[in-house]
Design goal:
alpha/beta; Rossmann fold; DNA polymerase, domain 1; 48% helix
Length: 222
């Protein structure tokens, strides 16, 4: 497996853990209760893959008002609950990572912060598979997704040309940056948040291939 590429870069939320569906349900519920009716599907369409100021700006654009004063504290409380309790894997993720050749460089490239990534990798018993190569768009680069900077940074840290990397992404925001980086991009639609047309959305962005599950990812890499 993976003889076509010299390194693998994994998005995290929605690729390795089922946090996209969970997180967007919470955002939709919060905004609806605050007087801004929002469905989980709308939340995913508007906010999935964003972080930091881009995420907050997208919410303000959606509701047509400033961020409610208790939004950040509500999000922190939900995040802490998830960090304590863990989040289930995207089907097949653990087995796929564990089957990778030990010599193959790999990294996580996520909009989430390193504490979030590391803690959930611990829950999945996958932390050792990535070592210190956990990279956050909120912490390691000035411009997070959809800019390509995070992917380029991770490839540099791994010592691999970006053109020799494969990136596994699930969100349109992430796929946009991944395609712009020059890597081979696999759009993964295995997560519970992916609607039937999700692959079509990723194809329109320009990903090189679509995988419905990790078995198809393995076939593409081989």
């Amino acid at each position: 497996m993976t003889h076509r590429f010299d390194a693998l870069l994994f998005d995290f939320d929605g690729v390795l853990i089922e946090s996209e569906a969970l997180g967007n349900r919470h955002i939709a519920e919060y905004l609806t209760n605050a007087g801004h009716p929002t469905t989980p599907a709308e939340s995913m369409a508007r906010f999935m893959g964003l972080s930091g100021n881009d995420f907050l700006a997208a919410i303000e654009d959606h509701i047509g008002a400033p961020i409610p004063p208790d939004f950040q504290s509500a999000r922190r409380a939900e995040d802490e609950r998830c960090l304590r309790e863990g989040i289930e894997e995207v089907a097949g993720a653990r087995a796929f990572v564990r089957a990778l050749p030990a010599s193959l460089p790999r990294a996580v490239v996520s909009s989430s912060r390193v504490r979030w990534i590391a803690t959930h990798l611990d829950h999945l018993d996958l932390r050792a598979a990535f070592g210190d190569h956990l990279y956050s768009g909120a912490e390691h680069v000035a411009n997070g997704k959809p800019a390509p900077d995070l992917y380029l940074y991770a490839a540099e840290r791994l010592g691999v040309a970006i053109e020799r990397c494969a990136i596994i992404e699930d969100s349109p925001v992430g796929a946009t940056g991944a395609v712009a980086s020059g890597a081979f991009v696999i759009g993964l639609t295995a997560g519970g948040h992916c609607a039937p047309d999700h692959g079509d959305r990723l194809r329109a962005i320009g990903v090189n291939a679509i995988a419905r599950d990790f078995t198809e990812v393995k076939a593409l890499l081989g």
